[in-house]
Amino acid sequence: MSSSEPLVSIVLPVMNQADHIARVLALFAGALERAGIRYELVPVVNASSDNSLAECLRAAAENPAIRPFDESGGGFGLAIRRGLREATGDFLAFANSARTSPDDLTTAVRFALRNPEYVIKASRLSYDSLARRAGSIGFNMLCRNLFHLKCWDMNGTPKVFSRRFDRLLHLTQNDSMVDTEFNAICQLYGYTLLELPLAITPRHSGKSSTNIRTAIALYSGAFRFAALFRKQHADAIAQVPQRY
Known about the structure:
Blueprint: E1 8-14, H1 21-34, E2 39-46, H2 52-62, E3 69-71, H3 76-86, E4 91-94, H4 102-114, E5 119-124, H5 130-147, E6 159-162, H6 177-188, E7 193-198, H7 212-232, H8 234-239
Parallel strand pairs: 1-2, 1-4, 2-3, 5-7
Antiparallel strand pairs: 4-6, 5-6
Helix pairs in contact: 1-2, 1-4, 5-7
């Protein structure tokens, strides 16, 4: 592929995924190469207690387009923020490295490259169980009301955007609220957000860390972050009250 093609940086938070992350990185790389996409994969290993970093470094030794980073602090958002700072691409993306399929990743990236005037995000079409689905719907409805959002799926990834949408390069949340912050910034600053419907894919390996305790923390975190967001962006909200 030509070096004149835009470079896409794909940030992938990694936590305790040593048993499958090298395979996943290889699958992502292969799919992007077959699609003719110029890319770099930016796995950010955060707070892992296994050999995830060693596996990412091994993958990088085989493919220079893989650029791993070690982030000692924990949190999905923290890993995304670190990855976005390290990314060098013209387009940037982040995705759940445990659940994203190579086909879905390339579909979202290709859609963004063809529509650079929009921010692209996945909207998941199914969930693992009725309980997980009910919890997700409740959280999405809460965030829609707190932040006056139009999108349906707060946490759906991949999320892909041009570097021109510079407000998205300065996310502040270190936990799962980073997804809601991403959507709220798009709404407030007039970035047109397109949701790409994608089916949920099974985890590559391991078990989800979501449980009742994390779900409660997510709901309470939404209320706390709503107040913080209003303080952080008070001037912008005052200028465009119709968006918020």
